[in-house]
């Protein structure tokens, strides 16, 4: 940027400070906060609305008139891209996450040089959005320090595989060296991916770190004036000049994300439990859980409120902590209260053929094009009919065994079910470490009251602590937009399901043609973000006359009807048809789908490459597709090992035959915090004997105490398909043979044998 323009910006910043106060109320001031007793709820709410020095500057700006404008000195198309994702409850941060980065990359590289000149305003001094890029200190097993207030644990693994959590033009094989690229990357590795993406595609002068956008104005001529202040990298650093500056742009892309602020429900009596209440985003490590239990003061019930992903993950984390305590006296109970029935999906699902079955990452099974009818694939949107709900439940039921099916749901219930992803939750429920309850928490006094759909109520007494797994609200990430624009967008801050009414598959509003949205919806996929960015940029680059209002108006009307639909007919996510979105965007943009073999195969971003002279795009896509082919190969056993290991959780009855004598007993597989080198681990007890089972990659390690009694269990051969899946395994360095029998994703029986000893578990 030219020196002249920089001086002009500073001059305008000074002129803003000298304006007269506004005489009208504005919607941009900090919300009022009621008084709460000291502790959790007050701390959560107060810190979320805490005024930093830059926020105080914003408040001063909003008391003043706006009578300034910077002339457009650069006649090429300036594009403003903002990425604001609050990731620190104590000191809110805004980061350039995947949606902002892919929008900027698309504008820079998908069109002739000079077509667009994008700028990313980023409040934080690093990129990544919710995704941390720093390697966590300490090992995964012991206590470790996590940055205060970060919403995502750096060691948390993605729910979907690396083939879905990626863009078309950067393969994970180009980010992580070596042959062992994780199928489900950890959060810090996702941050590393985004950093690599930025380094490869986005010049340094495009990204403005430490710039906090406080307001935007759409001028009479249609351009956008953006007001911003500098942010210090440290909270109490007052050396940064926080004068308010501004710039003008022709277009505005909102890539501010969805998870902007933790949602705290309004439950009568919750304030009285303030010191024993936390939001699930504050529980990352075993140390966080230990402190929560310490704060509870006495044993009792640990209540997780909220369904979907975070509720299941939080309840499982608490159960793992209790299971690892090595005490026979149960001191705490985990109760999970959620408003909807839900399916528990493991990270690997079976894909069956006539004679064999293969366990693949769940997204490669669920998003396989062969599941759609022949012909053009259309995008479906709107409330779910009873027929659709029944069909979906039947399909999910076919993938799972009866004990992994609706553990909290009657098959006759027509309500759309939610889905959560976990390898452990079902086992914890079956072993009574987690007690799920379907209903809504209506009040808290001496007991917690739950109202069920039937109108009946139940109570939980002796509450030790409460974890709010109630998700996030997106309203604060949109607060920089002018009130008249929010009015046109029919902004509903109290509706996190559909906060905005948009057209263009969530990318735009026909009445505001130079405003675009990327990834601003609940549950965004990386491939959809990339398609949305392409769709917006393609429309702006053509400069064609706007299309007839009929189709966008019809699309917005469908969104209104969906917003007004009863909760019983709403799905878990408003734009949940990932395959339909990707295919319909590809059709609109005339992007051919790349083949991966004889079958149609799964939908992944790398199969939809933008035609560009930059050959690096195609090279990266081919790397990802080759890795996908390897994963789809029957020789891959990682999914099988993960499925078998998860199926061992619980208590088994066994019968052991040795030299003609038969004995019986029980074996208990209890999850514990894993030892270094393992992803998950069990402490196994058979009477007076103890052993450990751990999983790493595609093998299971069995230790009976000491290296001389340890062996590695490797899977071989193809899994035989039928009513039961038969899995065979052998041990490296010894003659022990294993056979596992599975139905769906559950182990129903298994056995091992060595010369004259044979043990059968069921």
Spell out the blueprint of helices and strands.
Elements lengths: L2 H15 L22 H9 L4 H9 L15 E6 L15 H12 L6 E7 L64 H15 L5 E3 L1 E8 L5 E7 L14 E5 L1 E4 L6 E2 L14 E3 L6 H11 L3 E6 L2 H16 L8 E7 L3 E4 L2 E5 L3 E6 H5 L19 H14 L18 E4 L3 H6 L3 E5 L1 E5 L2 E5 L5 E5 L1 E6 L3 E2 L9 H6 L26 E3 L8 H17 L7 H15 L13 H12 L25 H18 L5 H10 L2 E9 L2 E12 L7 E7 L2 E8 L2 E5 L6 E11 L4 E8 L4 E7 L2 E9 L2 E5 L1
Parallel strand pairs: 1-2, 1-7, 2-3, 7-22, 9-20, 10-11, 10-20, 11-16, 12-15
Antiparallel strand pairs: 4-5, 5-6, 8-21, 13-14, 14-28, 17-18, 18-19, 23-24, 23-32, 24-25, 25-26, 26-27, 27-28, 28-29, 29-30, 30-31, 31-32
Keywords: FAD, Flavoprotein, Oxidoreductase
Protein name: FAD/NAD(P)-binding domain-containing protein
InterPro entries: FAD/NAD-bd_sf, FAD/NAD-binding_dom, FMO-like
């Amino acid at each position: 940027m030219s020196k002249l323009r920089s001086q002009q910006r500073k001059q305008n910043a000074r002129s803003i400070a000298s304006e007269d106060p506004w005489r009208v109320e504005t919607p941009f001031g900090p919300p009022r906060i009621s008084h709460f007793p000291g502790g959790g709820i007050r701390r959560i709410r107060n810190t979320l609305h805490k005024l930093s020095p830059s926020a105080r500057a914003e408040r001063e700006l909003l008391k003043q008139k706006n009578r300034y404008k910077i002339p457009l000195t650069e006649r090429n198309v300036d594009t403003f891209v903002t990425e604001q994702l609050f990731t620190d409850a104590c000191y809110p941060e805004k980061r350039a996450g995947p949606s902002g980065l892919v929008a900027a990359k698309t504008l820079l590289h998908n069109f002739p040089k000079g077509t667009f000149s994008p700028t990313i305003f980023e409040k934080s001094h690093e990129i990544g959005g919710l995704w941390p890029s720093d390697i966590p200190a300490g090992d995964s097993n012991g206590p470790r320090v996590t940055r205060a207030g970060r919403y995502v644990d750096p060691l948390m693994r993605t729910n979907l595989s690396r083939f879905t959590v990626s863009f078309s033009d950067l393969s994970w094989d180009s980010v992580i060296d070596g042959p062992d690229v994780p199928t489900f990357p950890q959060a810090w590795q996702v941050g590393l991916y985004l950093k690599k993406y930025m380094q490869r595609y986005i010049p340094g002068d495009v990204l403005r770190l430490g710039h906090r956008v406080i307001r935007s104005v759409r001028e009479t001529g249609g351009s956008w004036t953006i007001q911003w202040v500098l942010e210090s990298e440290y909270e109490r650093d007052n050396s940064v000049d926080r004068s308010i500056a501004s710039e003008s742009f022709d277009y505005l892309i909102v890539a501010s994300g969805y998870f902007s602020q933790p949602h705290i429900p309004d439950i009568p009596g919750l304030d009285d439990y303030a010191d024993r209440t936390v939001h699930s985003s504050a529980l990352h490590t075993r140390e966080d859980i230990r402190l929560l239990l310490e704060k509870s003061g006495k044993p009792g019930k640990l209540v997780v409120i909220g369904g979907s992903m975070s509720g299941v993950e939080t309840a499982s984390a608490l159960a793992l902590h209790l299971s690892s305590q090595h005490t026979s006296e149960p001191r705490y109970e985990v109760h999970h209260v959620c408003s909807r029935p839900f399916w528990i999906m493991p990270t690997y699902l079976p894909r069956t053929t006539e004679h064999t079955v293969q366990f693949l990452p769940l997204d490669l099974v669920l998003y396989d094009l062969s599941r759609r009818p022949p012909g053009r694939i259309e995008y479906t949107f709107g409330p779910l009919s009873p027929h659709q709900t029944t069909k979906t439940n039947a399909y999910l039921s076919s993938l799972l065994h009866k004990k992994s099916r609706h553990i909290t749901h009657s098959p006759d219930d027509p309500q759309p079910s939610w889905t959560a992803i976990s390898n452990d939750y079902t086992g914890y429920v079956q072993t009574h470490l987690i007690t799920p309850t379907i209903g809504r928490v209506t009040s808290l006094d001496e007991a917690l009251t739950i109202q069920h759909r039937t109108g009946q109520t139940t109570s939980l007494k002796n509450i030790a602590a409460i974890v709010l797994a109630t998700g996030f609200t997106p309203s604060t990430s949109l607060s920089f937009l002018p009130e008249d624009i929010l009015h046109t967008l029919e902004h509903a801050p109290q509706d996190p399901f559909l906060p905005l009414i948009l057209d263009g598959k969530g990318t735009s509003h026909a009445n505001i043609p130079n405003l675009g949205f990327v990834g601003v919806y609940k549950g965004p996929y990386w491939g959809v973000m990339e398609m949305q960015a392409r769709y917006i940029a393609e429309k702006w680059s053509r400069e064609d006359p706007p299309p007839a209002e009929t189709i966008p108006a019809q699309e917005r009307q469908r969104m209104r009807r969906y917003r007004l639909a009863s909760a019983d007919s709403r799905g878990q996510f408003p734009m949940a048809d990932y395959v339909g979105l990707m295919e319909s965007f590809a059709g609109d943009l005339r992007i051919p789908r790349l083949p991966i073999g004889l079958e149609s195969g799964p939908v992944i971003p790398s199969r939809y490459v933008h035609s560009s002279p930059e050959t690096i795009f195609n090279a990266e896509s081919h790397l990802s597709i080759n890795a996908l082919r390897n994963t789809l190969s029957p020789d891959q056993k990682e999914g099988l090992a993960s499925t078998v290991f998860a199926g061992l959780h619980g208590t088994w009855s066994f019968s052991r035959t040795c030299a003609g004598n038969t004995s019986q007993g029980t074996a208990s597989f209890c999850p514990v915090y894993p030892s270094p080198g393992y992803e998950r681990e069990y402490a196994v007890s058979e009477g007076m004997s103890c052993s450990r089972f751990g999983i790493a990659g595609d093998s299971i390690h069995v230790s009976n105490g000491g290296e001389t009694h340890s062996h590695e269990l490797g899977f071989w051969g193809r899994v035989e398909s039928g009513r039961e899946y038969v899995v065979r395994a052998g041990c490296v360095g010894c003659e022990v043979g294993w056979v596992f029998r599975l139905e769906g994703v559950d182990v129903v029986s298994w056995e091992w044998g060595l010369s004259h000893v044979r043990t059968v578990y069921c």
